[in-house]
Amino acid sequence: MGKSEALSDGVIKKIILSYTYVSVWIFLSFTVIVYNKYILDHKLYNWPFPISLTMIHMAFCSSLAFAAVRLFKIVDPVALSRRVYLTSVVPIGALYALSLWLSNSAYIYLSVSFIQMLKALMPVAVYSIGILFKKDAFKSNTMLNMLAISVGVAVAAFGEAKYDSWGVLLQLGAVLFEATRLVMIQILLTSKGINLNPITSLYYVAPSCLAFLSVPWLIVEYPLLRQRSGFHFDFAIFGTNSLCAFALNLAVFLLVGKTSALTMNVAGVVKDWLLIAFSWSVIKDTVTPLNLFGYGLAFLGVAYYNHSKLQALKAKEAQKKAPPADEEAAKLLDEREEDGMGRKGDTQA
Question: Reduced to 3 DSSP states, what percent helix, strand and coil does the chain have, rounded to the nearest 5?
């Protein structure tokens, strides 16, 4: 009785912790998205400089990561040669820079709700790029699933009240670069046995991301910032915004490390629905019935895709636990031979 009670207590504790990690990640992700929208939107804080905002985030994250690794030695740095850094980490930093730049730029032109609907295309982009780089095998059922998600997003876009082509292109570009980054992490880092936690990831990736962003910043935003008079850097606004972005990276590590990447995907769907509701009720963005119908189709497609991945993971785990068929056959043959020898001995006696 005592053991079963202890077991149930342990299970309950694990469930509570899992829900806590999910809740923290949803809260921080929700906060960063809404905060970025608030800063960049012309009708709100009116600071439409997405490259500058992303650079502030990267500078802040780089500084905290450097302090954690070098000064306080909270985590140990990963041994990376210059060649590995230049050929593996720097390309990921470039893709991350492009993804963040374009995704933050989209908030100037599109509503929060519509951006979340467009983000439903992420599994489609990851799967397609995975096939292109031979990290995923082409399966007709999965491709039909991807087509269903795409149709749902297209319907949502058709029903968007404040559709902006340039904003849509920016967000689709962000999805494309982020999907490529995720695939490249598998190819350039994971396949080589290089595993970076959020602190070491920011320690290595954020500086290269900052360096890449400085080029378009000098050309696009720096001249505009020089012409902008009367602006004083608000440390409270940008400091708390950057702190939320840094905390979100840590929350991602906790969520994936303590639960699974699939849990994060499911939590992401919940977060998207919450953001759509918030965008409609608080920010007063227009959400049409056709928007919701289209996103509903995409949501079902993403849910089915996550379910398929879960079933595949379960099958893979079961295959690992089960002894190989050849070993089972050999074991059965040995048992029969031993049984036959025993019977032979009985006859001779």
Answer: 85, 0, 15
Neighbours of 294 (CB within 10 A): 23
Residue 96: partners with Cβ closer than 8 Å, 6 or more residues away: 181, 205, 209
Measured CA to CA in angstroms, residue 99 lies from 17, 20, 79, 129, 221 at distances of: 31, 28, 27, 15, 17
Tokens of 149: 């998600």
Distance CA 285, CA 74 (A): 43
Strands (E), 123-261: none
Distance CA 216, CA 51 (A): 8
| Tokens encoding 103 | 């995704």
Cα angle for residues 314, 317, 318 (degrees, 5° grid): 85
pLDDT at 315: 82
Q: How far apart are CA 21 and CA 250, in angstroms?
A: 11
Six token digits for residue 41: 């939107």
Q: What angle do CA 180, 300, 109 make, to 5 degrees?
A: 55
Backbone φ, ψ for residue 231 (5° rounding)? -95, 130
Q: What whole-number distance in Å separates Cα of residue 48 and Cα of residue 110?
A: 13
DSSP state, residue 217: I
> CA–CA separation, 45 vs 147, rounded Å?
38
> In whole angstroms, what is the distance from residue 305 CA to residue 139 CA?
12
Read off the pLDDT of residues 91-113 as tens digits, 9 standing for 90 and up. Answer: 999 999 999 999 999 999 999 99
* Residue carrying the six token digits 């399966």: 139
Residues 8-63: tens digit of each pLDDT? 676 678 778 878 888 998 999 999 999 999 999 988 899 999 999 999 999 999 99
The residue count for the chain: 349
Global pTM reads 0.83
For tokens 């519509």, the residue is 114
Q: By C-alpha distance, which of 108, 107, 279, 167 is closest to 288?
A: 279
Token representation of residue 202: 């920011």
